[in-house]
Amino acid sequence: MGVSIFGLAWRSLLNRKVSALLTVFAIALSVALFLGVEKARNAAKAGFDNTISGTELIVGAPSGQINLLLYSVFRLGNATAEVSWRAYEEINDRPDVAWTVPISLGDSHRGYRVLGTNVGYFEHYRHGQRQQLELAEGEIFDDLFDAVIGSELAKQLGYEIDTPLILTHGIGGGGFNDHDDRPFRVSGILKPTGTPVDQTLHVSLEAITAIHVGWETGARNPLVDSVTEEMIRSFDLTPKTVTAVFVGLKNRASVLRTRRDINTKMSEPLLAIIPGQALAELWQVMGTAERVLLAVSAFVIAVGLVSILTSILTSLNERRREMSILRATGARPSHIFALLVLEAAVLGFVGAALGAVLIQVILAIAGPILAAQYGIALIGTGPALVDLYTIGAVTLAALFLGLWPAMTALRRSLDDGLTVKL
Amino acid sequence: MTDLQFSWPGQPVLLDIPTFHLGAGESLFLRGPSGSGKSTLLGLIAGVLEAPSGHISVLGEDMTQLSGSRRDRMRADHLGVIFQMFNLVPYLSVVENVVLPCRFSKRRQAETQARGGASEEAKRLLGQLGLKDPDLLSRKVTELSVGQQQRVAAARALIGSPALIIADEPTSALDADSRDRFITLLSDEAQKTGAALLFVSHDASLAGLFDRAMDLADLNRAAQLAGTI
To answer: Are B92 and A325 an interchain contact pair (Cβ–Cβ within 8 Å)?
Structure first.
């Protein structure tokens, strides 16, 4: 019995291939952009939330909770003050505390942060779904001058087990501030985690103390040259201060009380934060920018949708004849109406679906490059419900926009009657 | 089809026809120069235009009393229309163009079912009208000659045995030879299906090919009035 209204709409679009393809392409690009932003946002948030887990509290010198989170977990910025070893022991001795991992930051190696800690770090620090750090090769530091390096650092600098390296005081570049008198060697390389751990060089707390012998003023004391390695090894290398402390509790439910105790009842002022809460607050700050980006890309979709309108409205003039033929052969106004609305919806749907495919292709190509070049793991960017919702929303929006040309065509076809005044 | 009377008040009155009648199965030639309101008249009969006053009765149904959608149904079920030119939907095949009315009318769909299906009936009609070549049928309609296009349009108007076929200057783009042949084929087929044929043209020389011929000016009081001024 011939062609359905949908078939008519489809064939009519095929008859205007170039214009239809351009419109579909505009929609596809705008939808790909929108979904790209959305997926990047999710990947960022997922990566972000996966950075630290299984740690109930992070304790540092009083500053802001975001600040503490940034320097202790993301290795961004610097601590304004330190936590005394005595305070650390006080925390460690609390009956409700299951474990503590002290960390000490402040040195660097060729632009990568150095983290002083103890072996507990490798046992207790968790990322993602409570995954432990794992060694790709070698072992956790055993000797005073052993270093365990993150996968990204190893890859970028081409380090292997037993590669010798020199730490730099502070986080500037190398040069005068090198701790070149105390060379380290790589004892272990960690597996990739997709977190800042990948870009971190881990040494023992004692090593941090050791390389700073003679640096008490913040610069190198010339007398230090007379101190031999043997002498250093014989010193008590217990640090006087640490930068922050990761705390695990025996009972997670007591986290608020423990935090309050640490914030108020210690021998020195301290700040304890709940990582998840601080992450959420930090994400709120970043979320504004990310929402703006999302809004912009949504507007780009709107522009794409307008191009549907443009292409159909401009086609109406040359299609008056087509409409009156359809009317003459018995098409009701509702048929003409449906035809144009369907055309718009088809354009919207095909465009949006193509866009969703396009972004997956782009991610499939860009993903490995991003991971290899920048160590950015794209988590959760595969096809998701949001793609379906977007396709549905764009199709629906196109359908609604189609009402306009449909009304125009309807009015005209009623005016024109059987003959077109060309 | 009886007692057709209406007036069309645009700025000047275009059509004022006291009475006009076309019998079932009759073929009528209606002559009128361009601008005389022929197309408007056809639009009114086909029910795509609304008459502000008067009555148009088609197959016993008063078109002026029917709702828009009922008029649409009437047209879809009982009317075949052929235009001057550009009759075909450019993106449909020849056969798809012919079966188009069956898409919009269950009655005509059912009619063709009885004769072995819409496509078969379309091919049969096209064959009757001299379009047999399968190579021709597979061509894009825009690649057909004007004469061939008009014959496709005729097949479309005839499919599903409508009661009335309206032809608005369908031969003005054809040369004399194919014109006469077209009209003969059309009226023969209309006769076979029992359809009345209302053929409108400015070319009085065609009048002999029909059962009856009329001049729109004789029918239209508005034109007579204009003529006296």
So the answer is: no
Where is pLDDT greater, at B22 or A308?
A308
Domain B5-228 classified CATH 3.40.50.720? no
The pLDDT, as a whole number, for residue A421 is: 45
Q: Is residue A389 part of a domain?
A: yes
pLDDT single digits (tens) A266-277: 888 999 999 888
Q: Which residues of A touch B100 (CB under 8 A)?
A: 2-3, 326, 329-330
**Contact: B100, A327; criterion CB under 8 Å:** no
Distance of CA B117 to the CA centre of its chain: 23
Same domain flag for A36 and A64: no
A82, A230: one domain: yes
What token pair was written down for B29?
């030639």
Q: Judge if A107 and A230 occupy the same domain.
A: yes
ipTM, 2 decimals? 0.78
B37: closest CA of chain A, how far (Å) = 12
pLDDT band at B49 (very low <50, low <70, confident <90, very high): confident
Domain ranges of chain B: 5-228
Q: Looking at the structure, do residues A309 and A401 belong to the same domain, yes or no?
A: yes
A167 belongs to a structural domain: yes
Query: What is the total count of domains within chain A?
Result: 2
Query: Quick check: is A261 in a domain?
Result: yes
CA distance B178 to A125: 92
- What is the tens place of the pLDDT at every residue in A59-106? 999 988 888 988 888 888 888 888 999 999 999 999 999 999 999 988
Q: Give per-residue pLDDT as tens, B62-105.
A: 777 777 777 777 778 888 888 776 678 878 878 888 878 877 77
Contact B82, B162 (CB under 8 A): no
Residue A280 domain-assigned? no
The verdict on B89 touching A (C-beta cutoff 8 Å) is: yes
Contact criterion met (CB < 8 Å) for A328 and B49: no
CB B27 within 8 A of CB B211: yes
User: For residue A14, which residues of chain B lie inside 8 Å, CB to CB?
Assistant: 91
Tell me the residue range of the domain where A24 lies. Answer: 5-48+286-416
E strand segments, B56-108: 57-58, 61-62, 79-82
Q: What strands lie across the sheet with B5-9, from one edge to the other?
A: B13-17, B5-9, B53-55
